[in-house]
Amino acid sequence: EPQQLGDCPNEDIITKLNELMQLHKAKPGEEDRWRTFSYGKSIRALKNYPRRIRSFAEARSIRGVGLKTAQKIQEILQTGELQRIKYEKSEDVLVTRLFQGIYGVGQATAFQWYAAGCRTLQDLRRGTGGVKLSAVQKIGLIFYDDINDRMPRAEAKAIFDLITPIALSIDPKLSIEIMGSYRRGKADCGDIDILMTRPTDDGKTHSGVLSRLLNQLHDAGILVEDLAIPDDLHDLEATYRGLCRLPHVDTSRRRRIDILCVPWTCRGSARLYYTGDDIFNRAIRMKANVLGYSLNQRGLFGSVVRNPSDRRVKTNSGEEYTMWQLRVLVASETEEEIFKILGVPWQEPHERVR
Ligand code: DCP
Ligand code: MG
Ligand code: MN
User: Fold this and answer.
1) Are strands 255-261 and 191-197 parallel, antiparallel or unpaired?
2) Residue 105: which H helix or E strand, with range?
3) Which are the contacts of 112, defined by CB distance < 8 A and separation ≥ 6?
4) Could you tell me the superkingdom of the organism this chain comes from (predicted)?
């Protein structure tokens, strides 16, 4: 049983770590999710620790307390403060975080705008300091709240259920599926991630479907803004990003939508990638690397072909390798075979978190 915080010999440390955790929790980044998770784990461990911590080494020895947290505990022990809290609350951090909530704005742009004197979204709308937004960033600014809010699972399904018959009317043999957080069973989704492919046993492919689908979804009032249209809409491998909404509902909000098209043979590795979550993907890729493979959305590749002749080879997709770097496709058609070859016990999508 955890003790009451009041009786806890490390209460001051927990209070500071908790304050820092809350600041990270309020931020959207993947790094922040990690930190929130990691501080949460440390705090639980500290609540159960029966003695006053005296040193870095002692902090580090507690199960659940990582290196970075132990360093912060040491700082609190020595100074009574945690500088990182002040940093996380400083104006430049808060403002650039706000700016990075605009779709298409990264850290570099956010800091440029800050340096130009912009402090609020209104400053950006007015072009304070001469800042100019790209077309995509303008959309990101207009729909700032819609894009940053998550949608209920049921809304993702409702929109997908409108898209499916339109896609199948273009080609009834199309395979279309929602991936991402939806497939992992989450109660809310940041966007709708759609994977599209088509079997080729009749000699046909899904080439050309995306372009017709986008037109029809625009006509139906489901797609409302394009954010990124692939250069070659007829490529078997293409990613579209846009905003969609439930049509004919004046109050419906704009939601982010991604459509990923992949060749039929890559569907297993693509489903694995696109189901995530991103941290799970990182872990399984690392596992593949340790075993001498490399894993991406196109497949699991293995056994480096060593050839001392150092001849240059170009793949279909234009990547260049030397012979000794050539990688051989090991599996890509099903998720199951990839798990099996990597010796990872099967995990259902909802289990694929961290
Ligand atoms: N993905 C990844 N690495 C990234 C981005 C994405 O591995 N940097 C993979 C894993 C994700 C999937 O693509 O689960 C879909 O990406 P999203 O950004 O849409 O993330 P989720 O659908 O998992 O979460 P959200 O509900 O926030 O959209
Ligand atoms: Mg998603
Ligand atoms: Mn997505």
Assistant:
1) parallel
2) none
3) 131
4) Eukaryota
CA-closest candidate to residue 265, choices 183, 319, 178, 330? 330
Nearest atom (ligand 1) to Cα of 277 = 14
The helix (run of H) or strand (run of E) holding residue 95 is helix 91-100
- Mean pLDDT of all residues in 231-254: 94
Sign of CA dihedral 271, 277, 283, 286: positive
Ligand 1 binding pocket (C-beta < 6 A) is 180-181, 189-191, 193, 273-274, 276-278, 281
ipTM field:
0.99
Q: Quick check: is 72 catalytic?
A: yes
| 8-state DSSP, 27 | S
Output the pTM of the full model: 0.81
Our CA dihedral for 45, 49, 52, 54, rounded to 10 degrees, sits at -60
Question: 3-state secondary structure string, 228-273?
Answer: ECCCCCCCCCEEEEEEECCCCCCCCCCEEEEEEECCHHHHHHHHHH
Q: From CA 1, how far away is CA 129, in angstroms rounded?
A: 56
